[in-house]
């Protein structure tokens, strides 16, 4: 399609993490935005950013890994930087929320979104199921809200420069859904995604897109069980891996059983809100990482939802054992394939204030699953497996806090699974 210059209009990026930096550069460098702004909540990180910008100029840098399109690397000049959300003024037509999904409501409240009369749309970069409907309902929004299934890349801050975003990989495909039928803006957003080499499929609603984030189905059963939580909450450096079988990692028959049960519970919620549930095995294989057909037949993949629970669990176990190594890598001279599953746990860290900070995985997964259970409760849908995973997270976090006689700076111990 022919993309009009500055199709996003004046664009405000909310958040100041690596994804926000990468999206800022891509939006400006690709000619999507007119003016570009960056906003963040008041705090230490905002003050460090302000000092950096004052000293080095109001530019954001983004670097892509050597195997990716190097034309995507570059810099973007900021027209505005807000080190506090209540400073945001009424000039932004598009707001892109690049913050954890459980902060969306607070972010928009702090911005006083109803005061921003020029804002036409809000884009949720990495929402959970129900994120769009929740902010529309609770804030009584009458503007367009667009959900993406997930952030389309894997981005962190560079080890050499703490203010430079480094993108090491991009996803094969993401999904986009708007609260407005036949949205005229969504095709422009899809072009932004495609500009990094990621396919973008447009769906009929935000919840359709939100339900197509694979982490919703995989992360809670694998990383909110007792085995994984104890690795995450250990002060000693973990030598176990996130995607290996027990005892090297958290994958057991119980974790696979929980994954299958959670998929069915989430599917019931998704269907209630008018979206089509995913075929879990097909989504894992076709949209994420495939295995050889000799390992999992096309027939088994396509008909996965029709099988008995036992066969579904069996096929999921086959899938995870099949990607302990990268089945499409080139073996070395000894016939050894790339150790695909050797991914270290990110662990709890102590802070300068004497508190502890939980890593993004599984903290964000906890909050996203909590939102789904809240929606299920309102709809009268039972989610026993989801509540069990939430309880395990809360109990392990409470044990750690009691042992160390200290709290977390990013999670409140409040027995927040209030309807378990």
From TrEMBL:
Pfam families referenced in this protein's UniProt entry, alphabetically: Staph_opine_DH (PF10100)
Phylogenetic placement of the source organism: Bacteria, Bacillati, Bacillota, Bacilli, Bacillales
Protein name, as recorded: DUF2338 family protein
Highest taxon of source: Bacteria
